[in-house]
Each structure stands twice: as C-alpha cells, then as structure tokens.
C-alpha cells in the first residue's frame, strides 16, 4: 500500500489526482476505485495499477 494526499478531486466529474508521499509523483483516481469518499487534502492509502494512460490509484481509502 502506498500513502499520499489528494491534490484534486471533482465529485461531479468523478475523478482526481493523488500525490504519492516521498516521490511527489501524481496518479489518477476515479470514483469507481474509491472505498471511502475523498476530498482535496485528505490523506489516503491506495494501491497503484498501470493502465492505458498511466498510473491509476485503486482501493483508495482515507488514512
């Protein structure tokens, strides 16, 4: 599991980005991969999966 901070999340469009701690790398997150509801600045834990368009956060939950 990785840890990070929600940089941006748009509830109406159901997507956003999470900054991974220690690397400052950003990963995409979609509402279908959320376990808990999130909003900007929330601390989260998640797994990373490589998709067609890059890295995606899955199994996202608040830390």
From TrEMBL:
It is found in: Cytoplasm. One of its GO terms (molecular function) is nucleic acid binding. It comes from the Bacteria. It holds the Pfam family CSD. Residues 1-62 form the CSD domain. Transmembrane segments: none annotated. Keywords: Cytoplasm. This is Cold shock domain-containing protein. It comes from Bizionia myxarmorum.
């Amino acid at each position: 599991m990785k840890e990070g901070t929600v940089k941006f999340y748009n509830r109406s469009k159901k997507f956003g980005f999470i900054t991974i701690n220690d690397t400052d790398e950003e990963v995409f997150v979609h509402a279908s991969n959320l376990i808990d509801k999130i909003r900007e600045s929330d601390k989260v834990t998640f797994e990373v999966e490589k998709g067609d368009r890059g890295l995606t956060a899955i199994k996202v939950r608040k830390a």
